[in-house]
Amino acid sequence: xxxxxGELYIKTKDEKKIKAAQQLGIQVNPFDITDxxxxxxxxxxxxxxxxxxxxxxxxLVSKIGMGAFSGVEGLxxxxxxxxxxxxxxxxxxxxxxxxxxxIEGDLKRIGHYAFDQATNLREINLPNSISEIGxxxxxxxxxxxxxxxxNVQTISVLTFGNCSKLKKIVLQEGLxxxEGNAIGGPVESIxxxxxxxxxxxxxxxxxxxxxxxxxxxxxxxxxxxxxxYNKNRTEIVFITKKALANQNVFEINDGVExxxxxxxxxxxxxxxxxxxxxxxxxxxxxxxxxxxxxVKSGNTxxxxxxxxxxxxxxxxxxxxxxxxxxxxxQEGIKSISSYAFKLSSGIKELTFPESLETIxxxxxxx
Length: 366
Description:
By secondary structure, this protein is mainly β.
């Protein structure tokens, strides 16, 4: 038996206990809980929220099931008892009034989209017992400060994305991977622990005030002049807004082989200079303001002709930046990459060569 919000409940399958409880006016099995302790999504869950908007979970619950409280109105404070080991996918998503979450026990997992779009959530403690936080888990919340648990090895896609109040995020030893758009908000400085070995090129793209990445404890990355490189300087992982400000010409450093950092929002860039070392670049990450692309001598991978950048090794059209209304793609080109025409929306007539075999998705959207 358990008292919840002033009422006595009993969870049992024993017929004698059920009969006795009913005779005494005790509510029997009011919530849909599986034998494994998973609280399922039903209207009965609303009984667990008191008049002040606080959620009280019965100790029988070991997992808050998928969507159990998604979109619920009037829920302001959540107390996660020690019995709960997992918050399921979408458990509290689209919950506009949640302000505070208190985790009392050794929670293990926070599911995908668990607090996604909980736009008033300001405070949550994340114990080190947590080993997994799903994608989009805290997107669009109002969290201002967070310490990622030491047992979490990956900050997934948009886990802390679009957090408009996030000014401080502490990454602990044990973290290995930071995925695309993982963190977003006004955070100004991030310190990388020694264990981080992989950072997606889009990981910090939404950290619009980020000016410093402390790599003093990490030997896998180099931060210099507003640019985050891998340890061999063959890839630029991130460029701060300050480093790109007021640049009419953007020149990729010599030695860089892979450039996948999104600079599409920097409309002041008119010219892109590709070094001899570059092997890979995507049209998607380029700003639409580019009017010229220069390929330095010695580069055996790319050629820029008549307003088009080609990869001459695999016969691919990378991006067209021509401002002409009539564009002819040169013979020998076999494929057109995604977003290939995002820089040249004024084309009225486009002539394909006989050699063309493949047109990738989104290439002609513009």
